[in-house]
Design brief:
Layout: E1 8-10, E2 17-21, E3 29-32, E4 42-47, E5 54-56, E6 85-87, E7 93-97, E8 101-106, E9 109-114, H1 128-134, E10 138-147, E11 154-161, E12 169-172, E13 179-184, E14 188-193, E15 197-202, H2 205-210, E16 224-231, E17 235-245, E18 258-259, H3 268-277, H4 279-289, H5 291-294, H6 300-315, E19 317-322, E20 325-330, H7 341-354, H8 357-369, E21 371-377, E22 385-391, E23 396-397, E24 400-401, H9 422-440, H10 443-448, H11 450-462, E25 478-479, H12 496-499, H13 505-524, H14 528-546, H15 575-579, H16 593-606, E26 627-628, H17 630-643, H18 649-664, E27 676-678, E28 681-684
Parallel strand pairs: 5-6
Antiparallel strand pairs: 1-2, 2-3, 4-5, 4-11, 7-8, 8-9, 9-10, 10-17, 11-16, 12-13, 13-14, 14-17, 15-16, 18-19, 19-20, 21-22, 21-25, 23-24, 26-27, 27-28
Length: 701
């Protein structure tokens, strides 16, 4: 890939923080609990060989320093320093981007960042030492300065200009002279060690570098902090850095929780000391983490998309301590909603591969606090019928937990974005539960939740039709929580082809999958009557979809409402029987063979330009919307190629080229991973975790 100037998140696991870097100007930095990059000046540079100026990676922009707030009559006099730091020539800069290492090369400077991408041990079933190393709230970096041909000492620097409210840049004092650090308040810090290292505070990086008396590096007024390195002539040196984050005490409202890393580290100084003391072990582990992607047979395009998605996922994660128990959260990117259930169901494949306990943790927290009982009604009819249990869209937003049985997102009396997703979230919880149980063989958890699963089963059936004789296997009634509105799906910002829940074949495909999985579990538990009912509902659902194939050969997006859009996610539901080893249900010669064949025909009819492909080969998830979602594309690619066994090799390379461009093109590159792309432009779901559906590219049963 030729493009190198894209932001990537370098994040500790479970600390909801990120050192974001890669997009030019002040567009990265050290962000804590943000849904976007920190937009800070980040200074990484080296003195030129002639000593006349400094060359830096282009992650800063010059502004007059903050002295003007104090010395008001001298505004503009610091412009003599404007050209003290100059960006390296673009031709000099190279980048080697991998899953857990990100290396920049420019002239005699090398800057390498290490960030973890590994399994999180279950906090209730592991040693403290193992957990401590994984949830350490820090990432790491090295600066290598090659001054072997130099005749004089050359100065290098790594620093940033803080912008957090109510904090200031400070020198971090340690109990001994082993460590050297600068930081913004108690929350972020750069720390290093060694005989070549010193620290400086100033109004600007230019002021620090031009300062004649280094005693002035101790000022307490500047917003810029840096670690200064002096590389001796004739030597090549490498300096380690810990990029640290910390937020102590209670960090949430609604339910009082703290970060679990607080068990092991009392402050950011403790984080820094542990990071530097264990630097080699921690960075060697990051190098090993690269193997998840690098040892695969994926194309370069797919390696890039997978690495970028995983990085954005970890940047959204929180591991909290709730009365001594772990509480796992994945925030919803820029929106900051916590454990959005329609993301959980897509990220489940990544989490089951890496740390299955997090899936169980989220499922239990939804059932215990974020479930509710409703009634249902037909469209435009006030009469209510029995509904049942379902689950909220999310658990809250921005570290503020919602009240029991309610989300931050869902509103009342509407039929578009922000309406309730009652049916979808009910189905999503069940899909996660079955996939978790199959993957882990956690029979104890299934037995414990069997009554709840039975409640879910009845609730899904009740939403089909109030009269059992009229049931066709798909959603026909809306939740009483809509209060006269209509339910929606995870595709909330799309048109009715995917936004409306009732009669939608995307949601119907998940209903079919859930019925198939319910039949399997009921038979396993000897609950014959329920197994037969689940089988009947699955057949009805499949038959309803099959009989609605139109003359163009595809199944309209919404059944029974004259909506003829073509959608790719009609195949989404197949992923769940596949991961629960219900292989017979996916067999063309099995009990649902006609359904599988119909979906194959559907795909073949729509995967062409002008329908569900853009002119450049990118995928359109709906023929009537230009808003396409990469995470869902990755999932559906897997279903088409690995379950339906459709040969797409002639188009995948060109489509992957387009999908990569969606992440690195123009302003899109600022947002790391974005999951709503409107005609090539990132318009929503930015800084987003759901892209890890592409872990499916590595999957082998």
């Amino acid at each position: 890939m030729k493009e190198i100037y894209f932001n990537a998140q370098h994040s500790p696991i479970g600390a909801f923080s990120s050192f974001t870097l890669g997009y030019p100007n002040a567009k990265g930095g050290l962000g804590l609990e943000l849904g976007k990059p920190a937009d800070q000046n980040v200074y990484i540079g080296l003195q030129s060989s002639d000593g006349e100026h400094y060359d830096a990676l282009p992650f800063y922009q010059y502004t007059e320093d903050d002295r003007k707030r104090f010395d008001v009559e001298r505004i503009g006099e610091d412009r003599n320093n404007a050209y003290l730091i100059e960006p390296f020539d673009k031709e000099q800069i190279k980048r080697d981007f991998k899953l857990s290492t990100d290396t920049w090369y420019a002239g005699d400077l090398e800057f390498k960042i290490y960030s973890p991408a590994r399994s999180i041990p279950d906090p209730e079933n592991c040693t403290e030492g193992d957990l401590k190393k994984v949830i350490l709230p820090a990432v790491f970096a090295e600066i290598t300065i090659d001054n072997t041909n130099g005749k004089r000492s050359r100065r290098a620097f790594f620093g940033y200009k803080g912008n957090m409210p109510a904090t200031n840049m400070r020198k971090i004092d340690f109990a001994n002279d082993k460590y050297f650090g600068v930081g913004e308040g108690r929350n972020t810090a750069l720390v290093s060690a060694g005989r070549y290292v010193r620290t400086a505070i100033g109004f600007s990086m230019e002021e620090i570098l031009s300062c004649k008396l280094e005693e002035n590096w101790t000022t307490g007024l500047g917003y810029c902090g840096a670690i200064i390195i002096d590389a001796p002539p004739g030597e090549k040196i490498t300096i380690p850095f810990a990029i640290c984050f910390y937020r102590g005490g209670i960090v949430t409202t609604g339910m009082e929780m703290s970060y679990m890393y607080g068990r092991f580290f009392k402050d950011i100084e403790a984080v820094a000391e542990f990071s530097i003391d264990n630097f080699k072990e921690l960075t060697d582990a990051c190098i090993e983490d690269n193997n998840l992607v690098e040892n695969s047979d994926l194309t370069d395009n797919r390696k890039f998309m997978l690495a970028q998605a995983v990085r954005s996922y970890y940047g959204s994660t929180e591991l909290l301590d709730y009365d001594g128990k772990p509480f796992w959260i994945v925030n919803e990117g820029e929106y900051l909603m916590m454990n959005t259930l329609d993301l959980t169901v897509d990220m489940v494949f990544y989490e089951l591969r890496m740390n299955p306990w997090t899936v169980r943790n989220v499922l239990d927290n939804f059932s215990q606090r974020y479930s509710y009982i409703d009634k249902v009604s037909y469209p435009n009819d006030n009469k209510m019928y029995q509904g049942g249990i379902s689950f909220t869209h999310d658990m809250g937003v921005m570290n503020s937990f919602s009240r029991h049985g309610h989300s931050a997102y869902e509103k009342y009396g509407i039929s578009g974005c922000f309406s309730h997703m009652t049916h979808e979230q009910l189905v999503n919880w069940c899909c996660c539960a079955f996939v978790y149980a199959s993957h882990t063989n956690d029979k104890l958890w299934i037995d414990k939740n069997l009554n709840l699963l039975n409640e879910c089963f009845q609730s899904i059936i009740n939403r089909d039709d109030a009269d059992p004789e009229n049931r066709d296997g798909i959603m026909g009634l809306d939740s009483s929580r809509t209060m006269g509105g209509a339910e929606i799906t995870t595709y909330d910002s799309l048109d009715v082809s995917l936004g409306q829940a009732r009669g939608n074949i995307y949601l119907a495909s998940k209903c079919w999958a859930v019925y198939v999985m319910f039949e399997n579990i009921f038979r396993e538990k000897g609950i014959k009557e329920q197994a037969e009912l689940a089988s009947s509902q699955a057949r009805k659902c499949a038959n309803t979809i099959i009989k609605n194939i139109n003359k163009e050969g595809f199944i309209p997006a919404v059944i029974g409402e004259d909506i003829e859009s073509a959608i790719i996610p009609a195949v989404e539901g197949l992923i769940f029987p596949y991961f629960t080893k219900n292989n017979e249900a996916l067999d063309e010669n099995g009990p649902y063979g006609d359904y599988i064949k119909a979906l194959k025909n559907h795909v073949n009819a729509i995967m062409r330009q002008g329908i569900c492909m853009f002119e450049d080969g990118g995928w359109k998830i709906s023929s009537t919307s230009n808003n396409s979602w990469p995470s869902k594309i990755y999932l559906c690619q897997f279903v088409m190629c690995n379950i339906l066994e459709i040969d797409l090799k002639d188009t995948l390379q060109s489509s992957d080229d387009v999908h990569v461009s969606w992440l690195v093109k123009g302003e899109n590159a600022y947002w790391c991973f974005s999951d709503q792309i409107l005609s090539g432009k990132a318009i929503g779901s930015k800084y987003y975790p759901r892209g890890v559906t592409n872990i499916l590219w590595l999957h082998v049963l």
